[in-house]
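Anyone up for a design puzzle?
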C-alpha cells in the first residue's frame, strides 16, 4: 500500500489525472486487495486494482459542491461490512456522510447533511467513518469533539464518546478526534488528535484507558 500511494503522490506529481492525487486523507483495502482512496481536492473517490497503473473513479469527480453527485473535501472512506459494493464517504465540508454504490452516479446522505452544527442530526467537519455488521455507522465528528453512531436508516445520531461542542482532556471529553476503529472484542479506539492520545471505549460506552502516542 505504501508503495502504491507513494507512486501516485510522488511519481506522477500532484494533479487530476487518473494516475495522480491532489491530497489524500482516506484509504481502504477490501478483501480482494482492491485499494480505495479519497482524492480530497479533486473531490472524488478512486479505486486501484493491483494490476492497474491508474485509478478508476468510483464516486464523485463532478466538481466541488453539495449535490448528490458531488463532494466538498472527501476524507474518510469505508466499505460496508455486509456489502462490498457499498462505500461510505465522509464528505467533510458538506458536513455529511454519503452512501454510494461503487461506480454509481450519485450518493445518498446517511448521516448529517443538515448544515454544520452540534445537534444530533448534524455534523461539523467529520473526518472518519466505520461501519459494523449491522451497517450502523460510527463517525468522528471532529469539530464537535465527539464520536456519534448513526443506526442504519436513522435520521439522528447517538452520542457515544466525547461531549458535544466541548473541547477537553478529561475522560469524558475529546479534542478534535480523527481516526476510529474497532478491535475484535468490539472495543472502540479513537485518535484524540489534539490531546495527543488514543482513547479506548468498551463497546462504545465507558472508557477503559488512555494511551499517549
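Challenge accepted. My sequence:
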Amino acid at each position: 500500500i505504501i508503495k502504491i500511494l507513494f507512486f501516485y503522490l510522488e511519481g506522477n506529481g500532484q494533479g487530476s489525472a487518473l494516475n495522480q492525487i491532489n491530497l489524500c486523507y482516506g484509504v481502504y483495502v477490501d478483501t480482494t486487495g482492491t485499494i480505495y482512496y479519497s482524492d480530497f481536492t479533486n473531490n472524488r473517490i478512486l479505486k486501484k486494482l493491483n494490476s492497474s497503473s491508474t485509478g478508476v473513479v468510483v464516486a464523485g469527480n463532478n466538481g466541488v459542491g453539495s449535490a448528490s453527485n458531488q463532494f466538498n473535501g472527501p476524507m474518510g472512506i469505508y466499505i460496508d461490512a455486509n456489502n462490498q459494493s457499498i462505500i461510505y464517504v465522509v464528505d467533510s465540508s458538506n458536513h455529511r456522510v454519503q452512501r454510494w454504490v461503487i461506480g454509481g452516479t450519485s450518493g445518498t446522505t446517511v448521516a448529517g447533511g443538515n448544515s454544520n452544527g452540534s445537534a444530533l442530526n448534524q455534523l461539523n467537519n467529520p473526518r472518519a467513518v466505520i461501519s459494523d455488521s449491522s451497517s450502523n455507522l460510527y463517525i468522528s465528528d471532529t469539530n464537535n469533539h465527539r464520536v456519534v453512531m448513526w443506526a442504519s436508516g436513522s435520521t439522528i445520531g447517538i452520542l457515544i464518546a466525547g461531549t458535544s461542542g466541548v473541547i477537553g482532556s478529561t475522560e469524558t471529553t475529546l479534542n478534535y478526534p480523527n481516526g476510529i476503529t474497532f478491535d475484535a472484542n468490539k472495543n472502540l479506539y479513537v485518535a484524540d488528535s489534539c490531546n495527543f492520545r488514543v482513547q479506548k471505549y468498551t463497546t462504545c460506552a465507558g472508557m477503559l484507558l488512555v494511551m499517549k502516542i
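A detail worth pointing out: Confidence is low (pLDDT under 50) at residues 1-10, 204-213.
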